[in-house]
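TA notes, week 10

Several of you asked for a full example with nothing omitted. So below is the full record: structure tokens for the whole chain, then the designed sequence directly under it. When grading your own attempts, check the secondary structure regions first.
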């Protein structure tokens, strides 16, 4: 990000700070503080990319988040959303894909600080060592985690989650068998290899166009506890706890700070709802109801 853009974000943050403080205070008072879920990819100091953050930056993120928010697991995040009660803004940490370098400093740091995290990996890439599709043509292809590393992460208290077999864009898959393999069989294979039950699934790419209603159903039928998207929404107590909306963790701290203290623009991001639920969903989100009561 350019210095100018970073400066603009700081100016925007400063100008909207009074609004943010008021919003967060009102929310906390009625137990409706947001639950935010971050997704990181690769934490490494060499070969930077738009999905890489340095170890130093990552530690700075954890320091800042820890000073202002409560770290929670995905399970605890869901519990608060389902209970419709969260008195303090909370943040859950997740990773996508499965980059080996994360095991050098980032994962040990989380373990040392007892910060819960969920680590989503693409089963086929892990088993074959094949680079992820978004790196296939890159000059540098970052090494992929091994199964042994995932077992160590699990043994250290991290939770392993599923991320399809080969990082498929499920929004483009309409073949039932192919979808079943990417969503269900890849998840079962991962559980068998890691020796841990898999409870969560994250959609690769994670934008609304990359989601798939049938995949939501398959995850429910398979007994998973929840699925994650990645288009940047917040999770408000009272919303659907099965679908967890996530925010990009990779960028600079100024952007993260802007998002986690509630960017008014991000509040209007529409929540993706599968077709079957759209029919029964109420038009008003918890957010609208709560603000309506308070203002
Ligand atoms: Zn991914």
């Amino acid at each position: 990000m350019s210095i100018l853009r970073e400066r603009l974000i700081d100016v925007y943050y400063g100008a909207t700070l009074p609004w943010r403080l008021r919003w967060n205070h009102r929310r906390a008072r009625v137990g409706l503080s947001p639950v935010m879920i971050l997704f990181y990819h690769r934490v490494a100091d060499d070969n930077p990319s738009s999905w890489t953050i340095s170890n130093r930056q990552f530690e700075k993120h954890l320091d800042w988040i820890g000073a202002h928010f409560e770290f929670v697991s995905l399970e605890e995040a869901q519990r608060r959303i389902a209970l419709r009660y969260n008195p303090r803004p909370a943040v859950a940490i997740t990773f996508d894909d499965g980059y080996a370098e994360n095991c050098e400093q980032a994962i040990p740091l989380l373990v040392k600080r007892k910060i819960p995290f969920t680590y989503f990996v693409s089963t086929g890439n892990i088993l074959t060592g094949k680079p992820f599709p978004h790196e296939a043509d890159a000059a540098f292809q970052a090494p992929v985690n091994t199964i042994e590393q995932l077992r160590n992460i699990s043994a250290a208290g991290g939770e392993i989650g599923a991320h399809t077999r080969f990082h498929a864009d499920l929004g483009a898959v309409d073949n039932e068998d192919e979808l079943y393999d990417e969503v269900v069989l890849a998840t079962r294979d991962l559980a068998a290899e890691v020796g841990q039950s898999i409870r969560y699934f994250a959609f690769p790419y994670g934008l609304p166009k990359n989601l798939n209603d049938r995949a939501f159903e398959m995850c429910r039928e398979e007994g998973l506890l929840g699925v994650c998207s990645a288009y940047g929404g917040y999770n408000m107590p009272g919303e659907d706890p099965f679908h967890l909306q996530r925010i990009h963790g990779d960028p600079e701290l100024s952007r993260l700070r802007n998002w986690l203290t509630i960017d008014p623009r991000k509040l209007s991001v529409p929540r993706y709802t599968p077709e079957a639920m759209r029919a029964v969903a109420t038009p008003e989100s918890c957010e609208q109801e709560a603000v309506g009561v308070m203002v």
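The chain has a mean pLDDT of 93. Use that as a sanity check on your answer.
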